[in-house]
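Worked Example 4.2. Consider the chain below.
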Amino acid sequence: MEEKYFDLKFLLLEKLNLIEELSFIEAKKEKFESNDIVTSTRILTLIQNGTFTSSELAKKLNISRQAIHKSINNLCSKGYLLLHNEETIKKNKHIYITEKGKELLICRNNVMKKVEKTVEEKIGKDDFLKLKELLKKDWD
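Applying the procedure from the previous section yields the following structure tokens:
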């Protein structure tokens, strides 16, 4: 019988989907909406260590400015982000994370700790640590 070939992208996407599934399961147990914990935190994670404009976030996340604008407005309406006009160029708005947004990130981190523990239990501690080390390496 011929062994199937799975390329790197397929394998990574397959594992990402599993991690997303586990994240949704764990997120349902938290006080925040599971959708916010799993998807919105991508933007919040970037913003937590600095301020960005919509354009900068769109480039960093490799998504359209329209999509990032919609996501930011959604996060602002939920109280996770705050927009503030730049003094020199009024159309540039800096995005800041609110206290509620920081709470969501703490919740997300707790969810991810549980997900990582589940993965570690499934593949073993040594392989889990090796996987994390390999993924930390610079691929550029």
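The chain has a mean pLDDT of 86. Strands lie at 81-85, 93-97. Compare this with Example 4.1 before moving on.
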